[in-house]
Structure formats: structure tokens, C-alpha cells
Write a structure and sequence with these properties.
By secondary structure, this protein is of the alpha+beta class. 32% of the residues lie in helices and 14% in strands. Helix 1 runs antiparallel to helix 2, helix 2 packs across helix 3 and helix 6 packs across helix 7. Keywords: Disulfide bond, Glycoprotein, Hydrolase, Protease, Signal, Thiol protease, Zymogen.
Length: 369
């Protein structure tokens, strides 16, 4: 078999394993993904399984490295991440973990470049969302089906997750208030929002170095609103100047508040007010491919801002047929990550801190057009 053909075979095997939801690790602890590759393709005497995985990874994600030294280091990190993915698979059997675009990054690099939540708690004086009735909540709910959610965006190598969570929530609130779905500008927040935590000196929204959704709502409220994505496009770098143009404000914040930790309240606020800005611990997201993430143990240390857009009651788990309620989360790492850019995480026990920092925003109901 020609090398390119055998690579293709390996690639298809990987793909099949990814979409079928087969776990990458068998119960005997061996990495079946690697075995599968070795058994499935014609074994090359020159390349071991890890080299073949790495070659595929580089090809699939268009990776190239500046020097041989860098290449060798990235291969080293990649191998460690293969083992991490296998550990995650064991800890999180309802989801599929494996090779992602982040497989050549150390957890630290991943955190610095692709997360960006700056603080772990709300100020004490934050507005509390009123308690809502929860008796008539639908069993399944998804704002995407109602047209309240824009396409998945990509924060790139910039710790600006918080700005995407903020725009997503305001896009939804604006849709609820006006019936119009806009894509709003994260770059405006990255460049212009330097709002600080009144209780924590030096803790301010700082572009690619991190921020907090509630501070960004505060900035947006004070400052007049957010421009459209197209009027203030995303660059993913800390701009030296703020290019905010008040005459081009497209969506305004009326008020925002903190939702209680109760999962029924979170669901009720989601259904009533639109997608919610939430924080999460993203450690399992570095290796996540699909399924409902429900790790046995996950830190509640919040480090990533995302958007809660819906929930479901029965998880898709072809191997373990078991009902598992989950949240549907919009991420900001492009559509090629996770389930077309989305993450599912189980509901019920504040997994990875997903219930700990939830906020809701209301938009002013004047249309921009
Ligand atoms: C927030 O603003 C919306 C829209 O103007 C309004 O309906 C709602 O009552 C406000 N909520 C709070 C808690 O002030």
C-alpha cells in the first residue's frame, strides 16, 4: 500500500472511531486507538503508532513547526496528550476523548492561549436574578432551534473566551427583545473594555489576557452598547486603540444579574431570558471530541467562559444506553472542535463548576435598524 493510501486508511479509522462514539481506550487499559491504527493500516516498519498519530495530527490541523527542535518538543507533548486523552476517556466514559487541535499544547499553554476567564467569583453586590417558577419547564430546550444563537466563532490563540460568552448572551437577549439575530463584536470588548472588579484591585478585563462576563456587561451598559461583528471585526490580538463608534451601537444592555446555583433556576432563566453566560473548568475540553462529558471527578476551578444555549434529557450514548440529562454549551474554538463547536456536559451535580457562575442579561428592545 502506498504511504498516502495507508494514511488515508488510518485517517478513516480515526474518523469512524470519533463519530461512532467508541471510547478510545479499552477496559484492559491499552490504548485501542493506537492498536487499531497499527492493525488497520499496513504497519510501516519505520513509523511507530505514535509517529503515525502525530503525522495525521499535523496533516489534519495544518501544523508546522519552525525548527526540528520545536517539532521534537511538540511530538513529546503530543505523546503525553495521547496518554492524557486515554486517562480522560477512563474518567469520562460517556464522552469521547482523543486527538484535538490542542494536542500539541501543554495544559498550561492551552490554558493561557485558549481560555481566559480572569476571576472566580462575582462581586458581593451583584444583582441577583429573581426566582422563577420551575414547574412548567420543557423537558428539552435548545435556543439554536429558535434562531437565538449566531454561528460558532473562533477566539484563536487569545484568552478572550469571556468576550465570546458576553456577546453570545447579548446576541440572545437582543434576539428575544427585538426578534433580530445579530453577530456582535468581541473585538470591541477586547480593545475597549477595561472594567475592573470593585472588590479586587488589579482585576480588570484585559483583552487576550482574560476578563469576566459580568464586568463586560457592566462595560457595555455604561458605554452604550456593542457594535456588530462586521463593523468591528475580530482580530484576536490586543488592539492598541479602541475603535468604538457610538453611532454604530447595535445592541444595548438593559440590566444583568447573577442566577442562583440551583439547576432548575438556571434552566428557568435560560428558557425565559435566553442563552446564559456561564463559566466552567475546561480541563476535559482539551481532549473532548463528542458525547456528554460527565467525568467522575472534575475541578470546579473556573477558567473558561462559554454560553449555555439549551439542555436535553437523554444523552446519545450508543454503548451505554443510559439517560443522562445534559447542558448544551456553545464554545468559541471554531466549528471543528467538539460537536460542531459545541460541548455537552451532564446536569445534576455542578460538574466542572458549570452551575457556579451563571449570569443573565436583558437587552434594550430597540432594534438597530
Ligand atoms: C431588565 O430589563 C428588562 C427589559 O427592559 C425588564 O423587562 C426587566 O424587568 C429588567 N429586570 C430587572 C431585574 O431589572
Amino acid at each position: 500500500m502506498a504511504p498516502s493510501v495507508s494514511l488515508l486508511v488510518i485517517f478513516s479509522l480515526l474518523f469512524v472511531s470519533a463519530i461512532s462514539g467508541e471510547p478510545l481506550t479499552s477496559s484492559d487499559g491499552e490504548d485501542t486507538l493506537i492498536r487499531q491504527v497499527v492493525d488497520g493500516g499496513e504497519e510501516s516498519p519505520l513509523l511507530d503508532a505514535e509517529h503515525q498519530h502525530f503525522a495525521l495530527f499535523k496533516r489534519k490541523f495544518g501544523k508546522s513547526y519552525a525548527s526540528q527542535k520545536e517539532h521534537d518538543y511538540r511530538f513529546h507533548v503530543f505523546k503525553r496528550n495521547l496518554r492524557r486523552a486515554a486517562r480522560h476517556q477512563k474518567m469520562d466514559p460517556m464522552a469521547t476523548h482523543g486527538v484535538t487541535q490542542f494536542s500539541d499544547l501543554t495544559p498550561r499553554e492551552f490554558k493561557r492561549q485558549f481560555l481566559g476567564l480572569r476571576r472566580l467569583r462575582f462581586p458581593k453586590d451583584a444583582n441577583q436574578a429573581p426566582i422563577l417558577p420551575t414547574n412548567d419547564l420543557p423537558e428539552d430546550f435548545d435556543w439554536r432551534e429558535k434562531g437565538a444563537v449566531s454561528a460558532v466563532k473562533n477566539q484563536g490563540s487569545c484568552g478572550s473566551c469571556w468576550s465570546f460568552s458576553t456577546t453570545g448572551a447579548l446576541e440572545g437577549a437582543h434576539f428575544l427583545a427585538t426578534g433580530e439575530l445579530l453577530s456582535l463584536s468581541e473585538q470591541q470588548l477586547v480593545d475597549c473594555d477595561h472594567e475592573c472588579d470593585p472588590e479586587e484591585a488589579g482585576s480588570c478585563d484585559s483583552g487576550c489576557n482574560g476578563g469576566l462576563m459580568n464586568s463586560a456587561f457592566e462595560y457595555t451598559l455604561k458605554n452604550g452598547g456593542l457594535m456588530r461583528e462586521e463593523d468591528y471585526p475580530y482580530t484576536g490580538i490586543n488592539g492598541k486603540t479602541c475603535k468604538f463608534d457610538k453611532t454604530k451601537v447595535a445592541a444595548r444592555v438593559a440590566n444583568f444579574s447573577v442566577v442562583s446555583l440551583d439547576e432548575d433556576q438556571i434552566a428557568a432563566n435560560l428558557v425565559k431570558n435566553g442563552p446564559l453566560a456561564v463559566a466552567i473548568n475546561a480541563v476535559y475540553m482539551q481532549t473532548y471530541i463528542g458525547g456528554v462529558s460527565c467525568p467522575y471527578i472534575c475541578s470546579k476551578r473556573l477558567d473558561h467562559g462559554v454560553l449555555l444555549v439549551g439542555y436535553g434529557s437523554a444523552a446519545y450514548a450508543p454503548i451505554r444506553l443510559k439517560d443522562k440529562p445534559y447542558w448544551i454549551i456553545k464554545n468559541s474554538w471554531g466549528e471543528s472542535w467538539g460537536e460542531s463547536g459545541y460541548y455537552k456536559i451532564c446536569r445534576g451535580r455542578n460538574i466542572c463548576g458549570v452551575d457556579s457562575m451563571v449570569s443573565t442579561v436583558a437587552a434594550v428592545s430597540t432594534s438597530s435598524t
